[in-house]
Amino acid sequence: xxxxxxxxxxxxxxxxxxxxxxxxxxxxxxxxxxxxxxxxxxxxxxxxxxxxxxxxxxxxxxxxxxxxxxxxxxxxxxxxxxxxxxxxxxxxxxxxxxxxxxxxxxxxxxxxxxxxxxxxxxxxxxxxxxxxxxxxxxxxxxxxxxxxxxxxxxxxxxxxxxxxxxxxxxxxxxxxxxxxxxxxxxxxxxxxxxxxxxxxxxxxxxxxxxxxxxxxxxxxxxxxxxxxxxxxxxxxxxxxxxxxxxxxxxxxxxxxxxxxxxxxxxxxxx
Length: 270
Fold this sequence. Notes:
Layout: H1 7-12, H2 24-37, H3 41-48, H4 52-71, H5 79-84, E1 96-106, H6 113-119, E2 120-121, E3 126-135, E4 141-144, E5 148-149, H7 154-161, E6 172-174, E7 188-190, H8 203-226, H9 241-254
Parallel strand pairs: 1-6, 6-7
Antiparallel strand pairs: 1-3, 2-3, 3-4, 3-5
Helix pairs in contact: 2-4, 3-4, 4-9
């Protein structure tokens, strides 16, 4: 176990007594405390009795390591495997390959007006980074896009993320109303119906919209799990832009290994 010291004790301890390096398990603990609890570098350095630059190096190293380790594991699930794990809630949408939604995290406001206009999100009224996340019908994350500027539309992120290359004509996606991506790939799109001006929805449209809303909410629950990492509660400094993309991806991939299924009833399905 790592030795946790108080702030006062750590400040009195001679620097010569600082360990030259932490054990790998303690380095992983430090990384997870930074990601999940959102502790600052100075706080982590004092808790682990190491220099601040060492704590920064450990976080960067583990970010890169987990990014390549978890990223080497196949996320995209073949359609036949999805059908074998399809929850009964998706009985009306059996060809759904992925449920997509976008999310944003706040970032520091750039001094450059040009950069500010690129990362400013009208939806959040703040400068943000934006990513698209996709889950399989039974819950696991199967797609994570890179982080993009907050001003970018959902449609443009869909186009640039490369997910269209993974989709075939037999596959369907499920999205919210804002995802107008029908002509960007050859498959089917399940989306809540739009209400035309001065017209009332048909009974079929109402029923389908309600059905889609009941199952699409699970991608929002999955994204909430990602953002339960307290690091994303704060405004991300521009100084860490070089690694925040990988760090966010790692946070998404770790969700597949924690907290159990999104819906308890799905835990018993084979």
